[in-house]
Amino acid sequence: MDDWQRFEREHVWHPYASMLQPVPAYAVHRAEGAWLELEDGRRLIDGMASWWCAIHGYHVPELNAALRAQSERMAHVMFGGLTHRPAAELAQRLLSITPGDMQYVFFADSGSVSVEVALKMALQYWQAQGQTQKHRFLTIRHGYHGDTFGAMSVCDPVSGMHHLFASFLPQQLFADAPTAQCDAEWDEAQIASFRQQIEAHHHTLAAVILEPIVQGAGGMRIYAPEFLRQVRRLCDDYDVLLIIDEIATGFGRTGCMFAAEHADVAPDILCVGKALTGGYMTLAATLTTGRVCQGIHADGAGVLMHGPTFMANPLACAVAGASIDLLLASPWQARVRHIEQRLREGLEPYRAHAAVHDVRVLGAIGVLEMTRPVDVARVQQRLVARGVWLRPFGRLLYTMPPYILDDAQLDQLIAAMGSVLDDV
Asked: pLDDT tens digit string along 123-139?
């Protein structure tokens, strides 16, 4: 195709974008390490890890090898009535590293689908107990759990991205999100709204669903581990299941393998995705305990009513297994701690800038929250000119980079973020 970029611009939709008035889309020719090389030859440090999933960077020899080896055996086979080694080996790895007593794994296509599966698990659990009145979900404001309809219903209905669909979605319950960012700032008022909701509505609640410690696309907010501890206790007291959505935070992003470990909390149902395959393939998983699995089958007839066509795709499972092995064999904790320190030292001085409302850092996450919305196209143009790729949204200019960045790359990334503050 002679002018593929023009054709793509005129016919291919991008995420959260208009087809009639598209923002610029920079054409990538190849990617290696932490670098994106554009068609015009420019090289950009990827400060987004391709929406937080490419934790090892790009063109990773170990993941390439896993993909090639599995492709020579089989790329895909249906999971209905058939099975294969990559799925079993990946499930074993996941059960060995996830918090709590996870015993069962359901493989899904994407993070949003894994949330749908988690919601179904909770609903079917209570139906099988004969408690059909427990059919609603409680969460906190500023949350984001995906773009499919069940997942949208537990995203923030006011400040989230899905307010256009509010009248079509199941009506869930929302408590105030905590404002304390660490346990040192904790007071009991932080949990008051949530406690009131669960006390008043527990008899109709199937589950609570939360992003642990860091709320992602709903605002990149960091909250105190004590909030999660108290949520777990209240769920236990009122017999409500707890779903923890680690899609954005899992696999080391916050400095712990899973963010719930900051609070020493384990869920009843756990969602993972994004970094699961190191950014190579689309794959997610919903894990659960023996209690939930056995409860779903308590009526003697229950089967979990979900079955994606590409469930447990062998290529994705093989790469995911290799990605987990690579992560565990690497000094990932030291790398993430170093990124955290560098981001904290580099971003904190920007707090004094008139355009900056707040600075937040945890693990390999650095956030500048602005006083007003960011002009995404303009700011990205300036960042690209500085050799950096970031994807701002709302009032947020933030980075969630691959764990492999060296100090020079980190410094360039931090300097680029500061360089656009006057434009904001």
From this structure: 999 999 999 999 999 99
Domain ranges of the chain: 4-59+331-419, 74-329
Catalytic annotation present for 187: no
The architecture that CATH gives domain 74-329 is 3-Layer(aba) Sandwich (3.40)
The residue from 120, 274, 398, 403 that is catalytic is 274
Q: Known catalytic residue: 144?
A: yes
Which of 16, 187, 236, 299 does the annotation list as catalytic? 16
Return the HEC string of the chain. CCCHHHHHHHHCCCCCCCCCCCCCCCCEEEEEECEEEECCCCEEEECCHHHHCCCCCECCHHHHHHHHHHHHHCCCCCCCCCCCHHHHHHHHHHHHHCCCCEEEEEEECCHHHHHHHHHHHHHHHHHHCCCCCCCEEEEECCCCCCCCHHHHHCCCCCCCCCHHHHHHCCCCEEECCCCCCCHHHCCCHHHHHHHHHHHHHHHHEEEEEECCCEECCCCCEECCHHHHHHHHHHHHHCCCEEEEECCCCCCCCCCCCCHHHHHCCCCCEEEECHHHHCCCCCCEEEEEEHHHHHHHCCCCCCCCCCCCCCCCCHHHHHHHHHHHHHHHHCCHHHHHHHHHHHHHHHHHHHHHCCCEEEEEEECCEEEEEECCCCCHHHHHHHHHHCCEECCCECCEEEECCCCCCCHHHHHHHHHHHHHCCCCC
Q: Is residue 26 among the annotated active site residues?
A: no
Residue-wise pLDDT for 290-315, tens only, equals 999 999 998 776 789 899 999 999 99
Considering 147, 156, 245, 268, which one is annotated as catalytic?
245
Predicted TM-score (pTM) of this structure: 0.97
